[in-house]
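4.2 Preliminary Data

To establish feasibility before requesting continued support, the project team ran the inverse folding procedure on a target of 197 residues. The structure was first converted into the token representation described in Section 3, and no sequence information of any kind was made available to the design step. The complete token record follows.
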């Protein structure tokens, strides 16, 4: 149940960031979100007398900034599916079966690859954003008009965030990998004992 709620929450965030609008709007509001809703930003202050929203920003920016959340949703979904497979092996009292070991291996791969891909996606999105507004690789090559057009408004202060790497997910993948190795050793030991008996 927790996994379902988490995945649905991430999907909702992917949709709202990609469209720049809230899924639900009340009291006649159009539901347009501020640019600061991007996870790669800490701050986005418009110049006084101007108006703009996340929906006005470049589509490539919105899609790229939403991609780490999409990867996170897929990672959660896969990890839960593989964890249930492992738990079925435990329930069947077959901790050293090939199916059980396969479940551990796929769980560890899902967590490790998902965490690394999510971190890389967030890093790429952050570098893309910073470069297109005249920081990092765009320094000296991007005019204020180009940055304003990219962001969809005239922002006087933009504070970028450092890339967010899901360290907990990657560590969980390493732990699952270590458990895979331990159970594989247990399988070998069980075979040797059966041969002796």
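Position-by-position output of the design step:
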């Amino acid at each position: 149940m927790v996994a379902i709620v988490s995945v649905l929450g991430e999907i909702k965030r992917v949709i709202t960031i990609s469209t720049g609008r809230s899924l639900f709007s009340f009291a006649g509001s159009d539901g347009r979100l501020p640019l600061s809703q991007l996870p790669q930003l800490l701050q986005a202050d418009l110049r006084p007398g101007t108006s703009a929203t996340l929906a006005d920003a470049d589509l490539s920016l919105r899609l790229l900034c939403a991609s780490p959340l999409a990867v996170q949703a897929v990672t959660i979904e896969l990890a839960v599916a593989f964890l249930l497979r492992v738990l079925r092996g435990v329930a069947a009292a077959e901790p050293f079966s090939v199916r059980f070991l396969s479940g551990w291996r796929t769980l560890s791969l899902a967590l490790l690859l998902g965490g690394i891909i999510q971190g890389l996606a967030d890093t790429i999105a952050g570098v893309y954003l910073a470069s297109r507004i005249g920081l990092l690789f765009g320094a000296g090559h991007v005019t204020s008009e180009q940055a304003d057009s990219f962001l969809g408004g005239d922002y006087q202060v933009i504070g970028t965030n450092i890339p967010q790497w899901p360290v907990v997910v990657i560590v969980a993948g390493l732990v699952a990998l270590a458990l895979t190795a331990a159970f594989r050793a247990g399988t070998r030991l069980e075979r040797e004992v059966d041969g002796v008996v």
